[in-house]
Amino acid sequence: MSELHQLTLQDASAALAAGELTSFALTEALLERIQRLEPMVRAFLTVSGEQALEAARAADASRSSSSGPLHGIPIGIKDVICTRGVTTTCGSAILEGFVPPYNATVVERLNAAGAISVGKLNCDEFAMGSSTENSAYQVTRNPWDYERVPGGSSGGSAAAVAAGMVPASLGTDTGGSIRQPAALCGVSGLKPTYGRVSRYGLIAYGSSLDQIGPLAWSVADLALMLEAIAGHDPRDGTSANLPVPNYRAALTGELRGLRVGVPREYFVAGIDPAVEAVTRTALEVLREQGAELVEVSLPHTKYALPTYYIIAPAEASANLARYDGVRYGPREPGAGMWESIETTRGRRFGAEVRRRIMLGTYALSAGYYDAYYRRAQQVRTLIKADFSQAFAHVDLLATPTSPTVAFKIGQKLDDPLAMYLSDICTLPINLAGVPGLVVPCGFSAGLPVGLQLIGPAFAEEHLLRVGDAYQRVTDWHKQRPVVA
To answer: What residue stretches are annotated with the Amidase domain (predicted)?
Structure first.
């Protein structure tokens, strides 16, 4: 058997089911690896070691022939997802020490499937960022190169998988926050359709954009995770009341007759030529497997970035108004209530969060609402229509995920626009509400590159089928960074 930290979720599940491995041994080995690597990678904000080992013992004792594939598997959870009795900070000082009294629906479902949480993963504050440098607590480092970012905002979730700390994790994606770090860390990641996975218990950033999804080494692992967390939830008013397909059964490896659209707007000036070359090579692999590549146009793509940075900050402005030091987290002193609230928010929100709150408040203010927020929502409708029209002619779309490979820590911190441009290939998918899958597809200068596959709403099984077929004939998802 491979070293335990190199096991995919699927491999670990098979070994547990066959009695070749115990959950306790797997969990103990991964906790030891977390302890050894955490000073370098810094992926975790909270490690729940004792609780995880106790859960592993219970998983071993309760294992039976009817146990599901996640039974006894250790995972990590992004720190914007509520976990009962475990600190949940969103990477923000304003929620320092906050312990939720309930679990998010996705956590309930993973618990019901027998999965074991080993801790909470670092992220950009309130999921606002593309590098995991905006956390109030620490900067997560890319396991492929500790001098580089892991992407964001789910950088901790991607780095923990890439470093072999956990075989799978949960992240969230508001504008690319699962897919971009998956690409930069060389792992697989899925942003489901908006409404496919419950957002109950997710601490909101942009309520019309946020979606929870899995990260893992392989697409087959993502299918296992999605089956566990997807499905209708009456506690989430945006949850789609649709049956959950058997995602594992969709992994047939068959691509003949598939029409893959290649949007010309995603291969433009600004994309690193090496990243484009690796991506186009991946597209040729799909062609060799029987897919037909078709050039398509998404003409409103150029408006996605400004549209997103009006809508998302506006929603953040409303969602973050509740954090005032009165109901959640610590309170800064002041001469009166309003001074205390102002001081708390001023000192405990980071610079990027304050920037987005101000942008959003301005866009929603009297006299500017129609000029900015309403206009942005109108353009969003046009962007969504672009995708609908494209999917009338092709089965899915394929694009680069990030315009560059992982950049140096600190390189873009003083240039917010350059940082925002890191998500130029992922933002439109959130605005349209459709699913996106990223698979590792090669390297540039020794750093991972990811291929992004985009499907129609609620067509995750088709994306997973294509991603799995690609991984059956390539080994990029099997490459592991050398960490010490």
So the answer is: 26-464
CB 144, CB 186: distance < 8 Å: yes
Q: What angle do CA 134, 86, 203 make, to 5 degrees?
A: 50
> Which residues of the chain, if any, have pLDDT below 50?
none
Q: According to the model, what pLDDT value does residue 185 have? A: 98
Residues 43, 26: Cα–Cα separation, whole Å: 19
Q: How much is the pLDDT for 2?
A: 58
Spatial contact of 180 and 214, defined as CB atoms under 8 Å apart = no
Give me the half-sphere count of Cα atoms (radius 13 Å) on the Cβ side of residue 367: 1
Q: What's the CA gap between 348 and 74, in Å, rounded?
A: 32
* Distance in angstroms (rounded) separating the CA atoms of residues 133 and 27: 28
- Helices (H) and strands (E) counted in the chain, each on its own, are 15, 11
- 111: burial class by Cβ within 10 Å (0-12, 13-18, 19+)? middle
Residues 127-152 have pLDDT tens digits of 999 999 999 999 999 999 999 999 99
| Residues comprising the chain, all counted | 484
pTM score, two decimals? 0.97
Catalytic machinery residues: 78, 153, 177
- The count of other CB atoms within 10 Å of the CB of residue 26 is 24
- What lies within 8 Å, CB to CB, of 72 at 6+ separation is 16, 22, 23, 26, 27, 56, 59, 60, 63, 114, 115, 116
* Strand 447-454, strand 436-444: pairing: antiparallel
C-beta contacts of 134-140 below 8 A and 24+ residues apart: 134/91, 134/350, 134/351, 134/352, 134/353, 135/45, 135/91, 136/89, 136/91, 136/92, 136/93, 136/96, 136/348, 136/350, 137/45, 137/89, 137/91, 138/42, 138/45, 139/42, 139/409, 140/41, 140/42, 140/43
CB 152, CB 375: distance < 8 Å:
no
Domains and CATH numbers, the chain: 4-252 (3.90.1300.10), 305-310+321-374 (no CATH)
